[in-house]
Design a protein that fits this description.
Keywords: Hydrolase. By secondary structure, the protein is α+β, with helices and mostly antiparallel strands. Helices cover about 30% and strands about 15% of the residues. Strand 7 and strand 8 form a beta hairpin.
Length: about 375
């Protein structure tokens, strides 16, 4: 089926597929500026502005998060101009896609890449509903010559809270180590802004049972740090997608958000939770490759340990567009604008309760030569801390 191998980047003239949404980083930046003006946040830093949200579809809803995060990464990597050659490396001979990625990985296995992974999947991936994780994505990018790095975070009992803060700091450092945008003419002005976008590629964050794309972070006035995410499993409201597409295609500079007004108490009243029964989960599991020990020393994440539902940090859908009534009976949705608070909350990662994470990042180094690719056939990672 076409949807199982479809791929799109912002440079293409054709409209994006229905599960691809460009322009959201631009809108998120605007919404965060309103949050700063209204006193909610101190600062925020975002990734490359052309990053695209790619959602799962019905055929891969229970297993496709790793593939969709891969497509989000490819869309950004093939659009950026720091390493223009990445576009050809990732686009030929087989373009990215859910089923195409399965073929990529199998081709890499046949060439001797990630022998442990090949054995783990019994050399069979194409046409299956197997979950894949950051180890498989590392293999796919390495096979095509695009440098990437894996970083592990593992928290000891009783130190999870501090470990999560350390991981957030690592992510903050990643996005702020080069806070200028690709446009150097206004880089100085942008760097002084409390809300800025950068030329950094999105990160892929994996934990037990799920992975997501991290597109930045925000700091509140209370010194709390929240990660900002593109979660491929979250259903984007149709009005939000339409607004993003209309704003992206418009040259009029119209305002997509209602301007901040008086704060209302108890405004966030609904959050729908989506539950996924264990019985619907695929038999394969995603691997977090440890940084030490032999290459076959794989951490097996047992689906039986799950409680039958996605965690809170995975499944909260904030309704951005529902017409709500204020205390005077008028709709806050008036004039067709989105609510900036709900928009930010939709992309804010609320909680993380896991003890093991793995991050895939892109250093934007020169493409690997054939010899360098061979030297990275074994999947390795760095243990943070």
């Amino acid at each position: 089926m076409k949807s199982e191998s479809d791929f799109w980047i912002p440079a293409q003239s054709r409209p994006p597929p229905h599960n691809y949404t460009p322009g959201l980083i631009h809108l998120l930046k605007m919404a965060l500026k309103y949050s700063h003006t209204h006193g909610d946040i101190r600062q925020a830093v975002l990734c490359y502005e052309e990053a695209v949200l790619v959602n799962v579809e019905p055929f891969d809803r229970s297993w496709g998060c790793g593939y969709r995060n891969f497509l989000m990464a490819c869309s950004a990597l093939m659009t950026q101009q720091i390493q223009p050659s990445y576009s050809d490396l990732l686009g030929e001979p087989i373009s990215p896609g859910v089923r195409n990625l399965q073929e990529w990985i199998e081709a890499a296995w046949r060439e001797g890449y990630d022998a442990a992974g090949a054995n783990d999947f019994k050399d069979g991936l194409s046409g299956t509903k197997a979950w894949i994780g950051t180890a498989e994505l590392y293999t796919a990018f390495t096979f095509r010559g695009v440098p990437s790095k894996l970083v592990d975070f593992k928290f000891e009992d009783g130190h999870t809270a501090q470990g999560l803060e350390d991981m957030k700091k690592w992510i903050k450092d990643y996005f702020t180590s080069s806070a200028e945008t690709a446009d150097s003419t206004d880089g100085i002005l942008r760097s002084s802004s409390p809300v800025k976008s950068t030329n950094k590629m999105p990160l892929i964050l994996q934990h037990r049972g799920h992975s997501r794309t991290i597109v930045g972070y925000m700091e509140t006035k209370k010194n709390e740090t929240f990660l900002l995410q593109f979660n491929p499993s979250d259903s984007l409201p149709s009005k939000v997608r339409k607004t993003a597409l209309d704003w992206r295609d418009s040259s009029l500079g119209w305002e997509p958000f209602k301007k901040p007004g008086p704060r209302l108490e108890n405004f966030f009243t609904q959050a729908m939770k989506r539950k996924t029964p264990v019985s619907s989960l695929p038999p394969r599991i995603k691997r977090i490759r440890p940084s030490s020990g032999p290459i076959d020393d794989v951490i097996i994440l047992d689906p039986s340990e799950d409680d039958g539902t996605l965690d809170e940090d995975e499944d909260e859908d904030i309704d951005i567009c529902e017409n709500r009534k204020t205390k005077n009976g008028k709709s806050k949705e008036g004039n067709g604008g989105l609510d900036y608070e709900d928009f930010v909350n939709f992309f804010r990662l609320k909680t993380l309760r896991h003890k093991e994470f793995q991050i895939l990042s892109f250093p934007m180094d020169d493409p690997w030569t054939p010899e360098e690719r061979k030297s990275h056939k074994v999947v390795t990672s760095v243990r943070s801390g």
